[in-house]
Amino acid sequence: MGVFSVSTAAILIKLASEAHPLAIAFYRMFISVLVFIIITFIYRMRRINDIKVFTVKSNQVFRIIISSFGLAMHFCFWVWSLSFTSVASSVLLVTTNPFIVLLFSWIIWSHPIRLKMIIGMFIGLIGGTIIIFGDSQYTNNITGDLLALLGSLCIVPYVLCGRSLRKDMHIITYNLYVYALATIFLFSLILIFQIELFTLSTYTYFILFLVALIPQVIGHSLLNWVLGYATAVLVTISVMAEPIIATILAVFILDEIPSLYWYLGGGLILLGIYLSINEFERDFIDNES
Predict the structure, then answer these.
(1) Alpha carbon of 177 to those of 51, 75, 121, 149, 162: distances in Å?
(2) CB distance 36 to 172 below 8 Å
(3) How does the average pLDDT of the chain come out, rounded?
(4) Residues 224, 144: Cα–Cα separation, whole Å
(5) Within a 13 Å sphere around the CA of 260, how many CA atoms are in the beta-carbon half?
(6) Cα 33–70–10 angle (5° rounding)?
(7) Which letter, b or e, does each residue of 86-108 get, where b requires 16 or more Cβ atoms within 10 Å of its Cβ?
């Protein structure tokens, strides 16, 4: 459910193209915060004595800030990328973060890097290069591809810190604080670049509401809930289905037909992620047992 929900984001963002990318990212987070404030209020009303659920420990503050900043910058770059390139290329490149998660798992937690992981990363790198090469005939597409890759890089601290925080933090608390801080970061960019927020059409505001409700409140929040019970790597590999679902939706809704380069590069990226993550999960299970 989480993966399918986040897969609708690119389509909805394209439909809200009247708004500036930063405005789309801001409204996505701002509306999500409002929804979680309501959820929090209802939860507190039903569990009056459960005050500790919403407390934050001092050693969690820094990780919350890093997680929210990563989320804000992820949306900043990725939503912007959709202004330049296709849904198929943007979503596929932005979901290459399992490779980066593997590297950080090795750097931070000294998880061994196996030969199959290296081979998988190399195959994925070739796949990404093929997509970018295929888009190289259009300057705008290259810009969008690079922005999508930056978005992929920024989501890593969000996922890694989320995995760490969700071990002992309530899902409502985590979502509320991270989404709220991400909203503040994005609003700061709105002020710096003087982006207009209040002159959009009713249709666009409705689409922005759907962007916040489906991919964020439902999609991201469900994946954040899973982080409390599964590894960050397992969550990132589950999002491998996103580019497939998003591309199918784009074909029928936006009439965007993927190029041959996308099929070749995308197949290699998915194969590379599968090889790398499969080996990682096998090691993780062995260590746990």
Answers:
(1) 16, 17, 34, 26, 12
(2) yes
(3) 83
(4) 27
(5) 0
(6) 70
(7) bbbbbbbbbbbbbbbbbebbeee
* Tokens linked to 160: 């890694």
Q: How many residues does the chain have?
A: 289
Say whether 171 sits in a helix, a strand or coil.
Answer: helix
Locate 119 and state its tokens.
């081979």
pTM: 0.84
Q: Residue type for 122, please?
A: F
Task: Return the axis-axis angle of helices 87-94 and 115-135, rounded to nearest 10°.
Answer: 160
**Taking Cα atoms as reference points, which of 28, 24, 15 lies closest to residue 214?**
28
pLDDT digits (tens, 9 = 90+) for 21-73: 999 999 999 999 999 999 888 877 776 555 566 678 888 899 999 999 999 99
d(CA 28, CA 34): 10
CA dihedral 57, 62, 66, 69 (to 10 degrees): 90
